[in-house]
Amino acid sequence: MANRSCAVLFVLTATISAAQCVDYSKDPAGCQPSTFDTPIGQMPSVRVNRDGKLDPSSSEEDARAGVAKLEKELHLFRNIEPLHWVLTVPSVKDPATGAWKGGDLDAAGDGRGLGIAGSCIFTGHGNGAGRKHAINIFKIQPDPVKQPPVQVGEIPAMFEGNQGFDDRELRSLVYKNSRGEDRYMLVRNAGTNTIGRMEAYRIDMNTCLPVSKSEITDFGGQSHEFFLWHDPANVNRVLVYMTNWTSGLPDPDHAGLKTSDLTVLAVTDEDTGEMLPKAKALASFTLQEVGGPPVNEKPDATGLFSDGRFLDFSDSKNRGGRAGNFQNNEQNRFHSSSVTDDGERVYVAGTTAGFYVLDSEAVAHHRDAELAAGTAGCNQRSTIVSTGGVIDASKLPALANDCVHMVVNNDPGLKAFLASSASPQAKAERYLVLLTRSRFDVYPPVNATPTGTHSAVFVPNRPAQVKGNTKGRPAYVWVTDENGGCPLNYARMISVESEITPIMVGAFSIPDNQLEECLDQAITEPDGQRRQLVAQQNHNPTVFKNLVFNTWYGHGLRVIDISIPQTPREVGYALTLPHGIARTYPVFKDGLIYWVDNKTGLHVARYTGPRSNELPGPGSGTYEGNATSPHR
């Protein structure tokens, strides 16, 4: 009897211990559950009724009620309080069946870029053949917690013929010029898989409506993502750091040259702060020209690339019969970047070329007029040291004088060696070793379809504690890896304490980053019908000193505590219904979080979890991962 009593007591004690966590670390985050495993099989990917059941004919009121019911039952929000779900694409009713289709309530929207500043919100659309959705203009209301944003206007879609352009990137900025006058600018990057065009708008701060716009800048290929930088030393000066997804094509503006990976452009007059009639190109950078890997590198007949071979998971099949990941191409393209507040460093997400750091001091500290005219004392374009994969060692010293160049070119040891009497072959070999080491590159063996290293955002207010860091440059950069299929990739914490040798010191993943988990994902709706396929890649982060807010496509918005960079952990999440694609950089405006879901529109929420007291609150302005922050 005594033994049985002891056994019962042991089970009871074990049960209580398993249900409770006592934290002795004095960490504000305290005890946290494991990372949330997205319950895909229970998440409807289409319109539901008030009871949360699939119903294409339900009213908006019933669909919203059903979504709220399911989100609560499935625990799809933790430490994030949902406030508003704002529709950007209306549904269309079939008069014959009474069924709705094509809108955000049906998870059939096409949301894309997001720009927020002042009291205005701009949301873009993916568009495409026969689709020409205008940019929605919303106005933030006096009580943004209780009152959802209200649509006040539109900006017509860009298009050619029947092809509506993808408004993939929008950025807006409120600033005062040197005369103390308020100015509001919206920058738009739109296009197709082969076209990339940018234009800027001057916005009326009170109405949120455009009052004028610039001429179009055509990049001769698909411009992709961009960073909007506001010069702290000159309030009149706003620059765009634009990436080109189809670099390497004939440059329409420079005969005999090819389009660059990165182009830096002025969008305001540096003397007046007024929007320029047309953006002015100042400088550019191309990785391949400085000796980096070639664009669209192919393997040899055995599948071997110059830097290895990809893991082959093609023998594994998911529930739908789709094979696991394998690829036979390294695109090595420049995808996106973040720029330090002082403008001296650019942190690059370079797809299968990995992550690396650029020196942009010449751009930061010279006038736009000098840079555009080529009189700034630096080379506007990357010095072409590599032709057909062969390095011309005599040109290597010039790289350190490019207006934008890799930080490895600054190293005094490398400079001394290049100036020595060593042979050209020895100089080229040492340079290539250091150049390769200066990129944190996991590709191969890690698969990277469609992108690889997607975003790279520095951690603010955490300067590297290394000798000589008089500029207070960051110690860490948060890097996301976008790839679909199985296995999915995850997010990484990169140390840039040594800028020329970045290393991974921490990582964060979700359960579906494991091969067996993503292969076993549900392919049917809760009622057994075949479900919509929802992309699930890791995507865009907005980063604070101790917290990262990361959109993770079909796995929603994830909040990650990075107070110990080596051990990131999840402290909150928001997975909205119907099951969609959380895509944009989360934008913080006066303490609230805004993001656009590709399929379901604009969402507004508030983080209430650990370290929420550290986040910027009401009146603090706008923070985002793709523009100088904070801004108004």
Summarize the structure.
By secondary structure, this protein is mainly beta.
Write the topology of this structure:
Blueprint: H1 2-19, H2 60-73, E1 77-78, E2 80-86, E3 92-93, E4 100-101, E5 111-117, E6 120-125, E7 135-139, E8 150-155, E9 159-160, E10 163-164, E11 166-176, E12 182-191, E13 196-203, E14 210-213, E15 217-218, E16 223-230, E17 238-244, E18 262-268, E19 275-285, E20 336-339, E21 345-349, E22 355-359, H3 361-365, H4 368-373, E23 386-387, E24 390-391, E25 405-406, H5 412-418, H6 424-437, E26 450-458, E27 476-483, E28 491-495, E29 503-508, H7 515-519, E30 541-543, E31 547-551, E32 557-561, E33 569-574, E34 587-589, E35 592-597, E36 601-607, E37 622-623
Antiparallel strand pairs: 1-33, 2-36, 3-4, 5-6, 6-7, 7-8, 9-10, 11-12, 12-13, 13-14, 13-15, 16-17, 17-18, 18-19, 20-21, 21-22, 22-25, 23-24, 26-27, 27-28, 28-29, 30-31, 31-32, 32-33, 34-35, 34-37, 35-36
What does this structure look like?
The chain is mainly beta. The protein has a domain at 110-213. The chain is 11% helix and 31% strand. The strands form ten sheets. The protein has a five-stranded antiparallel sheet with strand order 1-33-32-31-30, with no helix packed on it. A five-stranded antiparallel sheet has the order 2-36-35-34-37, with no helix packed on it. A hairpin with a 5-residue loop joins strand 11 (166-176) and strand 12. Mean pLDDT is 95; it is low at 1-18.
**Mean pLDDT score, rounded?**
95
What general outline do the C-alpha atoms trace? globular
- Give the spatial strand order of the biggest sheet: 1-33-32-31-30
Strand content range: 25-35%
Oligomeric form: single chain
CA distance, first residue to last residue:
72 Å
Low-confidence stretches: 1-18
How does the major sheet shape up? 5 strands, antiparallel
